[in-house]
Amino acid sequence: MERAQRILKKFSKILKEQGAGPLFTTFKGYVTYALYDRWKVRRLRKFPPRMVKNRILFETNDDFTDNCRALFDYMVANGYNKKYELVWLVHEPEKYKKYQAENVKFVRNFKKNTTIRRAAAYRYALTSAFIFYTQAFNWIGMARKGQTFVNLWHGCGYKANKNNRKVFFDYCLVPGDVFIETKKEFFGCSSRKLLALGYPRYDQMMKGSDAARAYKEKLLKAADSDRLILWMPTYRHASSERLNEETLNNEFNIPILDDKERLLAFNNFCRDNHVLVVIKKHYLQIPYDFGENVLTNIVYLENQDLEDNGLQLYEFINCSDALISDYSSVAIDYLLLNRPIGFTLDDYDAYTESRGWVFENPLEYMPGEHIYNVQQFEQFVLDVKNGKDDYENQRKAILAKTHNVTDNYCKRVLDYFKITV
Asked: How many Å apart are CA 258 and CA 248, to the nearest integer?
């Protein structure tokens, strides 16, 4: 009864927000699942098909992105697909026709306009020798002998585990040895499952791309600026209520710039100093709303903007002259570039109470300007503009503690699992 009420509520919401067309598509998805997929999934689980030893499956939270995408691109570029079948679970396979190659498949993961997985998703998951993913793969509900589940994950930062979610995997990657103990507690798993190999996307970040550099120049030209500072706040107000962090409540739900006057003044300060600040929204964060305020030197960037320009996030990170973050794992990643980092800490005490930290002294692992107010924020911008950097040695010291550095992260991961050309 409860489930039926949830479904009816969902139908009502779709009709109200999207109209009759999407409602029909959703209804059709539920009906075809009930008539076909549910029975098929049960049969697949009870009588799994033969394993395909050279089949490798990929899934990411946002389709075709992040660590899985970096690993996949490396494999195709270096001919691994001649030996292995590379399969992606995605929402809309037709979007990825230009990435088709020998032994590469894109499979529809969900019934259209629903969160119901299709029987085909289970079939490929149950027959793949390796499964690479970046969030969780608990939905499969079983693991077969001969399968290896590798959680490439999406970053190791400063925040402790708030929700104690159990994430299923055989192995999970971390940047360096210091995170083995912290992630062991975070996931509630044995240290044997945690591999300090670093992330495949680090290769993208270290190399960048011509497309990313061209996009940077386009943004700088539009803002009449010489420097680009990338601002990547962690989420506070998530699209899922379960994940909300109620540590920051202001007009724009963003650190430091907590009202219209400060926002506009900071924008003008950046304009006068020919510095562009690009805010990259965390995928869990509800959209920022700056109202009708006209901002010339604060640009708001979403995943769709990157996709429209054919970019992966970590390619674009390479183009930035400096980073502003807080407690996000991107600050740990950015240490590899050895460029200035500013940490906004105006809700540090609230975060300490609500979430906690993986390090006993988290501030010691933040080698950069600690920003508590607008004046310190502006000083950081000036330092970037003038090439002043007082934290290089601190960054190198923390890098040594947090990273197991190599010059080819993708190859190291594949070699570890004996996936060879």
From this structure: 9
Residue-range definition of the domain harbouring residue 92: 52-198+411-416
Are residues 141 and 282 both part of a single domain? no
Q: What percent of the chain has a predicted confidence (pLDDT) above 70?
A: 91
Together in a domain, 172 and 215: no
Quickly count: other Cβ atoms within 10 Å of residue 21's Cβ: 10
Q: Tell me 112's DSSP state.
A: T
pLDDT tens digit string along 302-360? 889 999 999 999 999 999 999 999 888 999 999 999 999 999 999 888 888 877 888 88
Contacts of 60 (CB under 8 A, 6+ apart): 66, 67, 68, 69, 133, 134, 135
Q: Are 216 and 168 in a shared domain?
A: no
What's the chain's average pLDDT?
89
Residues 284 and 355 in one domain: yes
Phi-psi category of residue 418: left, alpha or beta, with phi > 0 → left and psi -120 to 50 → alpha: left
Residues 276 and 227 sit within 8 Å (Cβ to Cβ): yes
Give the burial string for 293-321 (b: 16+ CB within 10 Å, else e): eebebbbbbeeebbeeeebbbbbbbbbbb
H-state helical runs in 104-224: 119-127, 178-187, 201-207, 210-222
Look at residue 236 in the predicted model and tell me its pLDDT.
57
Q: How many structural domains comprise the chain?
A: 2
* Higher per-residue pLDDT: 321 or 21: 321
Handedness of CA 272, 274, 275, 280 (dihedral sign): positive
Closest CA to 73 of 393, 382, 346, 409: 409
| Angle between the N-to-C axes of helices 178-187 and 392-402, in degrees from 0 to 180, rounded to the nearest 10 | 60
Residue 34 resides in a domain: no
**Side-chain half-sphere of 287: how many Cα atoms within 13 Å?**
8
Residue at 26 is within a domain: no
> Among 56-60, 84-88, 207-211, 234-238, which is the least confidently predicted range?
234-238
Residue 315 maps to which CATH number? 3.40.50.12580
Same domain, yes or no, for 239 and 295? yes
The Cα–Cα gap between 240 and 284 comes to 7
pTM: 0.90
Residues 366 and 392 in one domain: yes
Domain check: are 62 and 128 in the same one?
yes
